[in-house]
Write a structure and sequence with these properties.
Chain A: One of its GO terms (molecular function) is 4 iron, 4 sulfur cluster binding. Chain A: Keywords: 4Fe-4S, Electron transport, Iron, Iron-sulfur, Membrane, Metal-binding, Repeat, Transmembrane, Transmembrane helix, Transport. Chain A: This is Ferredoxin-type protein NapH. The complex is a heterodimer of chains A (about 280) and B (about 220). Chain A is mainly alpha-helical. Chain A folds into 2 domains: about 10-210, no CATH class; about 220-280, Alpha-Beta Plaits (2-Layer Sandwich). Chain A has 15 helices and 5 strands. Chain A has helices spanning about 10-15, 20, 25-45, 70-80, 85-100, 105-110, 110-125, 140-155, 165-175, 180-190, 195-200, 205-210, 230-235, 245-250, 265-270, and strands spanning about 50-55, 55-60, 65, 215-220, 275-280. In chain A, the strands form 2 sheets. Chain A has a 3-stranded antiparallel sheet. In chain A, strand 2 and strand 3 (about 65) form a beta hairpin. In chain A, helix 7 packs parallel to helix 10 (about 180-190) and helix 9 packs across helix 10 (about 180-190). In chain B, strand 4 (about 160-165) and strand 5 form a beta hairpin. Chain B has about 220 residues and is of the alpha+beta class. In chain B, the strands form 3 sheets. Chain B has a two-stranded antiparallel ribbon. Chain B has a two-stranded antiparallel ribbon with strand order 3-6. In chain B, strands 4-5 form a two-stranded antiparallel sheet. Chain B has helices at about 10-35, 55-60, 65-70, 105-110, 150, 185-190, 205; strands at about 75, 90, 130, 160-165, 170-175, 200. The longest helix of chain B is centred in the N-terminal third of the chain and has 29 residues, at about 10-35. Chain B folds into 2 domains: about 45-125, 2-Layer Sandwich (Alpha-Beta Plaits); about 130-210, Alpha-Beta Plaits, CATH 3.30.70.20. Chain B starts with 8 loop residues before the first helix and ends in a 13-residue tail after the last helix. The chains are: A mainly alpha (about 280), B alpha+beta (about 220). At the A-B interface, strand 1, strand 2, helix 4, helix 8 and helix 9 of A face helix 1, helix 2, helix 3 and strand 1 of B.
Chain lengths: ~280, ~220
């Protein structure tokens, strides 16, 4: 019995490996996103202070400082010297994503990911096919654009409209009408262009993608000889171009592009267990 | 490793121009948006120890650590349409003033130096300055001995005091703010008995005059 809400790209995997095996990484991801978000929200809402602040900068258990390196970079370009503890916090976060995969931020932490994933799922269920093609490199241009704006205005200009920080701050502190911009992202992904925000436009993701080029944990098409070219992984993947060299190439089985968000969607959706989580040391 | 795309010089230059166009369009429109909204910031009252507004907007990462450090719930991060730039901390003295904690926990919590973590004492804070704006409504001007602003001031007798004056032949006691002592905590504004406070905290550059000579009308 196939549930109607299972996305098409996972149906074969559900049939061959069962529902839970075909949603393992998806469930782990959503659980992590919810856990991170709730930990931040527990303070202001229930007075349980495990972590203070928000993604921009925070203090874990009153001792460990964490900070968003992209935010620090914007401040630097705007003309404010980097200083501890935010600088140390940004260093820790950079190191963390150098290990677990740069854009693991996108798929395991960022709340906007849940919004755009939902939009993508709803597109499929409603049969919406309108897809205004965007260039995937647009996000790098926008990244440079945000830094240019910071330089011209001498403020963190991007933070005035950044849906990523607006949404997480909204959940923790409230932003009022700021939710409108999150709704815009949802509608953009649903009605205008497939995976428009996260895979084409978001400069935050582009920034973490730059870290991701060098990161340690990677997806591997370890059993690529078992591939029967069903295309399930490519339909699930928000960045399908990253899979091809690893799956169909002759070189490394590792997905080496910084665009890969380490979401594990390909592992979940493959009916033949081609993919697995791996590291650079053990591809 | 990567396949090189064959591209004519003309295409390459067109592509570079297009990329530069997107960067500039994005960057400049964002900058324009910031410029149109920044005029509102002039009214925002910042937490104690805040750098001058221009530097504050470079340094503040909108993390809310100061907001969560405040034991009185004074501070909040600006929402869409508030008087401060989106996401930055500010407070509205008429709702909840700054209670001037001795250890200044909000400033100590700031990770970037947007608030001065090393502020020696809350007395050194410069959140703004109280200004008696309602000369026609203030009860003391009408000859009633209200003086609530003077009595609630945490910097007792120093930041604001009653000075005898004669108005229309009548002896009255007028509240006078001493800007060198006033931190802009806003307790006076909070407690003013009028429906619309006659004394208000304003950012210092709005609330105070300055020395020097107006150059208006003279050749420079």
């Amino acid at each position: 019995m196939m549930n109607w809400w299972v996305s098409n790209s996972r149906r074969e995997a559900v049939a061959s490996r069962g529902f839970f095996a075909a949603h393992k990484w998806w469930m782990l991801r959503r659980a992590t996103q919810i856990l991170v978000m709730t930990t931040f929200m527990l303070g202001p809402m229930a007075g349980i202070w495990i972590v203070k602040g928000n993604f921009a900068s925070s203090e874990l258990l009153g001792v460990l400082d964490l900070a968003d390196p992209y935010m620090q970079l914007q401040g630097l370009v705007a003309g404010w010297p980097l200083a501890a503890p935010a600088l140390i916090g940004a260093g820790i976060i950079t190191l963390f994503y150098l290990i677990i995969g740069g854009r693991a931020y996108c798929s395991w932490v960022c709340p906007v990911n849940a919004v755009t994933d939902t939009a993508h799922w709803l597109r499929e269920k409603l049969g919406l096919t309108r897809d205004r093609k965007l260039d995937k490199r647009t996000r790098y241009l926008l990244l440079v654009g945000t830094l240019l704006a910071a330089f011209i205005t001498g403020t963190l200009a991007w933070e005035l409209v950044n849906p990523v920080s607006i949404m997480q701050r909204g959940l923790i502190f409230g932003v009022g009408l700021g939710w409108g911009i999150v709704l815009l992202v949802f509608l953009l992904d649903l009605l205008v262009s497939r995976r428009a925000w996260c895979s084409h436009l978001c400069p935050v993701g582009a920034f973490y993608g730059l870290i991701g080029r060098f990161s340690f944990v990677r997806i591997s098409a370890r059993n690529r000889e078992d591939c029967n070219s069903c295309g399930a992984c490519l339909t699930t993947c928000p960045e399908p171009h990253v899979i091809v060299p690893a799956l169909k190439g002759d070189g490394s089985t590792l997905v080496l592009s910084g665009d890969c968000i380490n979401c594990g969607g390909c592992i979940d959706s493959c009916p033949n267990k081609v993919f697995s989580m791996a590291t650079r040391l053990r591809p | 490793m990567a396949k090189r795309r064959k591209m004519s010089r003309r295409d390459a230059m067109a592509e570079v121009a297009r990329a530069a166009g997107v960067v500039c369009l994005g960057g400049f429109s964002l900058a324009a948006l910031v410029k149109t909204t920044s005029s509102a910031d002039a009214r925002a009252i910042r937490p104690p120890g805040a750098m001058p507004e221009q530097d504050f907007l470079k340094a503040c990462v909108r993390c809310g650590l100061c907001v969560e450090a405040c034991p009185y719930g004074t501070l909040s991060l600006a929402r869409w349409g508030d008087e401060a730039e989106l996401g930055t901390p500010f407070f509205t003295p008429r709702s909840i003033p700054c209670y001037m904690c001795r250890d200044v926990p909000c400033a100590r919590a700031c990770p970037t130096g947007a608030l001065d973590r090393d502020i020696p004492s809350i007395r050194d804070a410069n959140m703004g300055v109280a200004v008696l704006v309602g000369h026609e409504t203030c009860l003391n001007y009408k000859g009633i001995n209200c003086g609530i602003c003077v009595r609630v001031c945490p910097i007792r007798g120093k930041a604001i005091s009653l000075e005898p004056q004669e108005i229309n032949g009548r002896q009255v006691q007028i509240p006078v703010v001493h800007s060198s002592e006033c931190t802009g905590c806003g307790t006076c504004e909070k407690q003013c008995v009028l429906g619309h406070a006659a004394i208000r905290v304003l950012p210092r550059d709005l609330g105070l005059g300055g020395p020097g000579r107006n150059r208006a009308g003279r050749p420079t």
